[in-house]
Amino acid sequence: MKYDLLIKNGTIVTAAESYKADLAVKDGKIVAISNEINDEAEKIVDAKGKLVLPGAIDVHTHMSMPFGGTVSSDSYYSGTMGAACGGVTTIFDYPVQRKGQSIMELINEKKAMLEEEACVDYASHCCITNLNNGEILDEMSKAVEEGITSFKAFLVYKKEGMMVDDATLVRLMERARELGAMINIHAENPDLIDMRTERYLAQGKTSAWYHYMSRPEFVEAEADKRAIHWAKHLNTPLYIVHMADKEGLEAAIQAKRDGADVFIETCPQYLEYTCEVYKRDNGRNFVCSPPMKGQESQDALWVAIKNGLIDTVATDHCPFQTYEKDWGKDDFSKIPNGCDGVEVLYPYMLDAANRGKIPFERAVELCATNVAKIFGCDDKGSLSIGKDADIVIYDKNKDFTVTIDKLHTNCDHTIWEGKQLHGYPVQTYLRGSLVYDNGDFVGKAGMGKFVKRSPRI
Ligand code: URP
Ligand code: ZN
Ligand code: ZN
């Protein structure tokens, strides 16, 4: 057989092991992995001295999202271009249901844009804000049939009209269990946040630091524990997004130990920064929810990363331009919540591996393999025969300092400015096609395809 692509002499990394082998691709799929492959190929890449990794799956992004009085600054085009350049070959987006809207309406609204713009593959978790008198619970089965197998419930953003109450959350969780679907939650207590926000503003405490102070560790932990409580007692699956606090993390780990189907996601920003960033002059650029927490929480997250108790690392990519962040210069409650990250996710976790903090296999597991398993992406997440040829070639010796002009996403600043990374992706392949080559995006808008997912069994 003549292959389309043959990657020779590299070290293949999976979640389980690393080994030297050649890898061959035909029609977008991995068709052979072996000690030595010498058959003909359209294109041969010498990966000697390099790591060959599965493309990452950023399971938490907000592209073109109306939020905080504006729209997040990355379109599906610029956001997925950035993804490709950072070794991310699939993104999961979070479209938010407007009141009265059906799930399929919501998905179809985004469909044309994604088909036209996406440069990497994509899936969606649907954010449910309202059950439409129960219609949504019925419609969830249709969504699962269409390969949309996860739904998000915000336990926060009450004033914004996005929050669900506990009864709605529980109904969603029970329905998800019946359908083999997953409920993702953003856990923070909205009433405490609103009360504390009002109190600080009334006291003239308006800087970005008070974004953290209005939603500190225990505000997140309360909501984590509430959702975990329902998951445990009702025997329903639960995926907690952007976990940032130690107390909530410990509760989730205990629930796992007790046999509950609780999964934990954290994000690079919580692993890198603490709440101290909110004391900086540009602290508002780091405003996201939940906010970065104290050192104790960060240390606990790293321990759980290392010992396998955190399941995934994703970005919550939701950037806003400087002028938009500046709306909250004199009032932290007016700062649009969200930060960039999609292009830095994989390099950041691989840098941690390259510096010996975690094994490379663990970085692959957190950013690709576990995501594919938890969310039913059967063709994605690892380098093995029959999977999509979503491949990253990584140079352990290439040093890279993040600066905004080197990133491809559409924001005028990055919270990662100045971050030094030891090792960097040199090429990204999406289903066998080169989309990133040594600093340059070489893919095309519209290359990305919808990922139809399987329900959980
Ligand atoms: O601050 C954040 N995280 N913005 C995006 C929306 C969300 O809560 O995930
Ligand atoms: Zn969130
Ligand atoms: Zn988010």
TrEMBL record:
Alphabetic keyword roster: Hydrolase, Metal-binding
Record has Acyltransferase as a keyword: no
EC number assigned by the record: 3.5.2.2
Superkingdom of the source species: Bacteria
One family name in Pfam for this protein: Amidohydro_1
UniProt KW Metal-binding keyword: yes
Enzyme class: hydrolase
Residue ranges constituting the Amidohydrolase-related domain according to the UniProt record: 51-420
Cofactor(s), names only, from the UniProt record: Zn(2+)
GO molecular function: dihydropyrimidinase activity
Annotated CDD domains: D-HYD (cd01314)
InterPro entries xrefs: Amidohydro-rel, Hydantoinase/dihydroPyrase, Metal-dep_hydrolase_composite, Metal_Hydrolase, Metallo-dep_Hydrolases_sf
NCBIfam families cross-referenced by the UniProt entry: D-hydantoinase (TIGR02033)
Family membership: Belongs to the metallo-dependent hydrolases superfamily. Hydantoinase/dihydropyrimidinase family.
PANTHER family assigned to the protein according to its UniProt record, in alphabetical order: COLLAPSIN RESPONSE MEDIATOR PROTEIN, HYDRANTOINASE/DIHYDROPYRIMIDINASE FAMILY MEMBER
Protein name according to UniProt: Dihydropyrimidinase
Taxonomic source organism: Peptoniphilus stercorisuis
